[in-house]
Amino acid sequence: MMSKPTSRTVLVIDDEPQIRRFLRAGFELEDFIVRETGNAAEGVRLATLKTPDLVILDHGLPDMDGAHVVECLRSWSNVPIIVLSVRAEEDEKVRLLDLGADDYVVKPFGMAELLARARAALRRNIRAPSGEPMVKVGPLSVDFAARIVSLEGNRLPLTPKEYRLLQVLAQNAGKVVTHHHLLKEVWGSSPIPNTQYLRILIRKLRQKIEPDPTQPRILATELGVGYRLTGRDAETRVAVG
Asked: Could you report the per-residue pLDDT of 44-81, keeping only the tens digit for each?
């Protein structure tokens, strides 16, 4: 008789009881064990006692800004963190993502969308037990050990910068990677080049990995924030940038 897979644990840190009830119902339907609290200090304590598989974090907590919670957790843990906020400003999204959040969801939101983002964050956090990993996103495969990129089994010729850009995105598959981080990782120079350089490189990469570069399904744009490598079954708000 096969044993039942171990349930994953999600820690919900949100000061609104109705939001916590909403999240508990949705995650329990997905067989998560839900732990919850209404303040940041208790959330950090619970995460320290037993590291969860996922953290859902409200940005506007009464005792501590969500950004400080992200910084605190990132000082010792790589647990996936999804920030919830009523603030939709691009600068704020970029700030939280640069601090280490895996995703940023603006309230109000649908549970199906949040669960899809949670699955993507959890997939990204899975590491191969040994050796260099291979990341597969839809028809695209990136073999880090061999430095080989394949589309539907056919090897793609990439320039060094195209490969480095795809490598950074693949290492964070399912997660938004900000413009600033990509520019720093790909060009590694100071001062950081203008984002126009990045847009040109993204366009060239899409011409090689997308069946239709004008309607990207693999390399998605998060307008004003950055880019995300995404599978066909994940986040569908895709735009050309």
From this structure: 999 988 889 999 999 999 999 899 999 888 877 888 99
User: Residue 195 in contact with residue 183, Cβ under 8 Å?
Assistant: yes
Burial of residue 83 (CB within 10 Å: 0-12, 13-18, 19+) is buried
Task: Report the C-alpha gap between 216 and 51 in whole angstroms.
Answer: 36
Give residue 15's identity as a one-letter amino acid code. Answer: D
Q: pTM for this one? A: 0.61
Backbone angles phi, psi at 131, to 5 degrees: 75, 180
